[in-house]
Amino acid sequence: MSSVVEQIQSEINKLTTNTQKSNVGVITSLADGVANVEGLSGVMFNEMVEFPNNVFGIALNLEEDEVGVVVMGDMSRLKEGDEVKRTEKLLSVPVGKALLGRVTDALGAPLDGKGPINSEETYAVERIAPGIIPRKSVDQPLQTGIMAIDAMIPIGRGQRELIIGDRATGKTTIAIDTIINQSNMNKQGEKSGDPDFRPVYSIYVAIGQKNSNIMRTLKVLEAAGAMDYTVLVTAPAADNPANQYLAPYSGTAMGEWFMENGMDALIIYDDLSKHAVAYRQMSLILKRPSGREAYPGDVFYLHSRLLERSARLNQDSGGGSLTALPIIETQGGDPSAYIPTNVISITDGQVFLDADLFNQGVRPAVSVGTSVSRVGSAAQIKAYKKVAGKVKLQLAQFRELAAFSQFESDLDAKTKSQLETGKRTVEIFKQPASSPIPVEIQTTVLWILQNGFLDDVDVKDMVDATRSIIEYFETRGEAVAAKILSTKALGDEVVAELKSASEDWKRSFSNS
Amino acid sequence: MAGNRKQIEFAKKLLEISIEDGEVNPERVTAILEELKKNPPAKYPKVLRAYLKLVKKEIKKYTAVLEHSGAISDKAILELGKELFEIYGRRIHVTTKSSEELIAGVRVSVGDDVYENSIISRMQPLRSISL
I need a labelling partner for A329 at 20 to 30 A (CA). Which of A161, A220, B3, B43 fits? Predict the structure, then answer.
C-alpha cells in the first residue's frame, strides 16, 4: 500500500511546478482590531497582508521589530502564532460604471445581494492627489437644486464645499438632495440629446452611521430614481474602525475613475467627524502618540490628503472633475473645535447649518453670514448670477437688522421695507426635503422676487407663492424656463418673455 | 515597550559582539553569558530575553529549514544551499524537516521568506474560494 502512495508521490514530484515565494510573519499579539506581527521584513506601508481564513489587514505601523496591522474582517478567526503573508499589493477597490446603482462595503464588495460587481479595473485606495499642472480653475456649476445654496453659496465642479452643523440640522438632506438633483439633471440631459451635456455621477460614503439611517438614505435615493447614477459605499457604526477609516478613500478612488476618464463625479463623505473618531481609535490602539483631543498628530493630513484628491482637471488631462461635499457634525453649534477647523481650512468654503434657524422652521437652515463659497461664484451661470448677485448681502443685512429691530419700537420706512423684503427672501428660500428645484426655475423665482412681483404678497403666503411660481414655470411657462436654460443668460428677449409670463402667473395667483 | 528600550539596546550591543564572520559564534555567546552572570546588568532577565530573541532572529537569517514530504537526496540539499547562496549572498545552513502535511513537494523557509512548491500551497486558492 505504502509503495503505491510513494509511487504517486514521486510522479507528482516529477511534475514541472512553479515555486511560490512569500514573505511571512507571525502574530505575536492580537487586540481591539490590531495584530502585532513579527517578521514581514519586506512589507510596505499600507500594504495588504493576508491572515489565515481569508482575513486581510493593512500594515500601518512599520517598526524595527514588528509590524502593526489593522485587521479588516473577523478577528475571532485569528489567534497568536498564526502565519501572516505579504500580498505585495496596495489595498484596491473596483472602479467603473459597473458600480453605479450598487451598495458596497469599504473594500468595494457588494452588500446589496445583486450579485458580483462586473468591474474590469481596480484603483488603489490611497492615491496621490493630482498635482498643480493637470488642474484647472472651477468654472462649471454643480447645481444642488437647493435655492439657498445655489443662489448664495454656489458650488462648482471640482470644488470641496463643507456641510457643517449640529446633529439633526439637515446636513444629510442637503447631500441627498444634491444627488437627486444630479440624477434629475442627468436624465433631462440625456433625454435632450445635447452632445455637450456632462452627467454628474454620485458617490455617497456613509461612515459610522446606523444601518437604519443608511437604509433610509438608500430608500430615498431609490424612490427618486437616483441610484442609477449613484454608488453607496458604507462602513456603518457596527463595522470595525479600519473599514470606517478606509471607506472615504475607497469612495474617492471610485470617484477618481470618473474624473480621470473625463467625466464629472460628486462625492459625499457623511461624515468626516466619525471618520476622525475611527482613525483616533485605530491610532490609540496602534500606540501612536496622541495630541489635542487625543487625536494623532496626522489627523490634519488624514483629511487634507483625502480632500486634495477632488479636483477639476484641464482639457489635456481629460477635463474631468471630482466635487467633494464633506460633512462635519459640530457640538453646540461650535465650529471652532479641532476637526471642524481643520476641515474648514482644507475646503473651499462651507455651508453652515444653524440649529436655531432649523427650529424656527427655516429649512434648509443655512446660516448666510457664516456660510461661504470661495470659488463657486465663478461657476454660476450668467442668468443666475444676475438675479442672485445681491441676495446674500441683502439676507445677511436683514438678519442683523432683524436682531436689532427687536429692541426698537419705532422704525423708519426704509428699515421697515428692508425687513419686509428680508422676510420675503427668507420665505422664498424655504424648501422641503427631496424636492430640488432646477436652475432655470430658481432663476425665474429670484427674478420675480427682485422685480417686485411679490411685494404685495403677504409673508405668510410666500411659501405658497413660491410653489405656485415653480408649478407655473414647469407647466405653462416651460418655454421661458427652457430658453433661460439654453441661453444661460437674461437677454432682452428672454427678459421680455419672463416679464409677460410673470404677469400671467401673478394674475392667476391673485385669482386663486 | 518604552520601558524595555534600554535593555533592548543593550541586547543589541551583545548581539553585535556575538557575531563573527556574519554568524552567531557559540563560543562568544558562552563567554558573554558567563560575563553577564558574573556582573548582571540592571533588569538582567529582560536583557537575557531580548538577547535570546535577537540571537534567534539572527540565526534564522542564515538558516534554511527545508520541509519535505517524501524522500529528499543529499544532492538536492547541496544544490539548495548553492541556490540560496546565490539569492542571499551569504552561506545558508540547510536543515531538513519531514512534513507530511505538504502532501507532496517542499517548503523552504529562510528568515521571513518562504519558498513553497507543494500540493497544499496549490490547493490554497481552492480553499479560499470554498470559504
Answer: A220
Contact A13 B131 (CB under 8 A): no
pLDDT band, residue A15 (cuts 50/70/90): low
By annotation, the residues of A acting in catalysis are: 374
Residues A333, A334, A338: CA angle, nearest 5 degrees: 140
Contacts of A44 in chain B (CB under 8 A): none
Q: Of the candidates A380, A402, A424, which is a domain's last residue?
A: A380
Q: Tell me, yes or no, whether A8 lies in a domain.
A: no
CB pairs under 8 A between A and B: 46
Q: State the pLDDT confidence band at B1, using cuts at 50, 70 and 90.
A: very low
Span(s) in chain B for CATH 3.30.910: 62-130
User: In A, which residues are within 8 Å of B122 by CB distance?
Assistant: 17
Write out the residue range of the structural domain in which residue A38 sits. 21-89
Given a cut of 80, whether residue A27 has pLDDT beyond it is yes
CB B103 within 8 A of CB B120: yes
Cell of A495: 427678459
Neighbouring CB atoms inside 10 A of A120's CB total: 8
CATH number for the domain harbouring residue A447? 1.20.150.20
Residues of A with Cβ-Cβ distance to B113 under 8 angstroms = 21-24
**Cα torsion for A172, A173, A176, A180, to the nearest 10°?**
-170
Contact at CB, A24 and B128, closer than 8 angstroms: no
User: Are residues A99 and A133 both part of a single domain?
Assistant: yes
> Among positive and negative, which fits the CA dihedral A98, A110, A225, A269?
negative
Q: How many CB atoms lie within 10 A of CB A427?
A: 21
Distance CA A262, CA B7 (A): 58
CATH number of B62-130: 3.30.910
What pTM did the predictor assign? 0.86
Chain B interface, Cβ < 8 Å to A: 1, 69-70, 104-105, 109, 111-117, 119, 121-122, 128, 131
Model confidence band, residue A14 (pLDDT cutoffs 50, 70, 90): low
Q: Select the residue of A12, A25, A42 nearest B104 (Cβ to Cβ).
A: A12
Q: What is the mean pLDDT of residues A28-39?
A: 90
- Rounded to the nearest angstrom, the minimum Cα separation between A339 and chain B is 30
Per-residue pLDDT tens over the stretch A101-113: 999 999 999 999 9
Q: Is the ipTM of this structure higher than 0.85?
A: no
